[in-house]
Amino acid sequence: MSVTNLDFELFRDYLEKHSGIMLGDNKQYLVTSRLRKIMESERLQSLAELLRAMQSGPRSGLYQQVIDAMTTNETLWFRDGYPFEVMKNKVLPELTQKYPNQRLRIWSAASSSGQEPFSLSMVVDEYERSNPGQLRAGVQIVATDLSVSMLEACKRGEYDALSMGRGLSLERQQRYFEKLDGARWRIKQPVRQRVEFRQLNLLDSYALLGKFDVVFCRNVLIYFSAEVKKDILRRIHATLKPGGYLFLGASEALNGLPELYSMVQCSPGIIYQAR
């Protein structure tokens, strides 16, 4: 597979326009490694050929295959730890007191391979066990991602031994998973049924999602330009109820937009509250 500088620039522009994802300079190796199998199956010799095929649209599903390959990343259970402790010890107690008879809604805005929304569902279960009767109306977790194939895998809730070893305690594994054949585990039904997976491009409208009490948009904004990032944060604010909370990644910060969000120090960690 050949990748000239011009082909890379054209592909990079196409990817940013259609997914918002920005590829850094000198990332030809990433494009080559992630697209090699697609190129071989489609019998395409160069990135330029692939781009022409995607733009002309004669190959069913080719665009989605490429987007999936370029945006799919496995993540960790309970990544960074503190966001999930803040949810259990601060946010859920506040929200159950504020809305005692309303179903709470949480949006996992870049669910990837499913660990984040399922981790949130486990946290909800742990809170219910410690505070029986507090979540009378229940909790709905809406998990969205750009990758259709990843979402289909998430719906099954099945993980291999390597995935299970990344951030999941033995106690949680025993409580929330059932063993399958072939060194695979499946999340138990009560945890799975709290999560609804939907396909969504963060560049598109959020109008059909409804309003949320909490939004997790972690470790995805780093892939967008500053202008697109600010636009996404404004539109996320429109989905949050007044006083709702936004969680960003540990390496991400909300610079600007003081009229929309106020910073909340949680020791450790920082979250943002919608004004």
Query: What does the main sheet amount to?
Result: 7 strands, mixed
Overall strand count: 10
Shape: globular
The proportion of residues forming helix, as a percent range, comes to: 40-55%
Query: What letter string, H or E per element, gives the SSE order?
Result: HHHHHEHEHEHHEEHEEHEEE
Radius of gyration: 20 Å
Query: Kindly state the mean pLDDT as a whole number?
Result: 91
Q: Tell me the strand order in the biggest sheet.
A: 6-2-1-7-8-10-9
Spans of 5+ residues with little confidence (pLDDT < 50)? none
The helix tally amounts to 11
Report how far the terminal alpha carbons are from each other: 50 Å
Portion of residues in beta strands equals 15-25%
Description of the structure:
The chain is 44% helix and 19% strand. The chain is built from 11 helices and 10 strands. The model has no long low-confidence stretch (mean pLDDT 91). The strands form 2 sheets. It has a 7-stranded mixed beta sheet.
What's the short version?
The chain has 275 residues and is an alpha/beta fold. It has helices at residues 5-19, 28-42, 47-56, 62-71, 82-98, 115-130, 148-156, 161-164, 170-176, 189-192, 226-239, and strands at residues 104-108, 139-145, 158-160, 177-180, 184-187, 195-199, 212-217, 240-248, 261-265, 270-274.
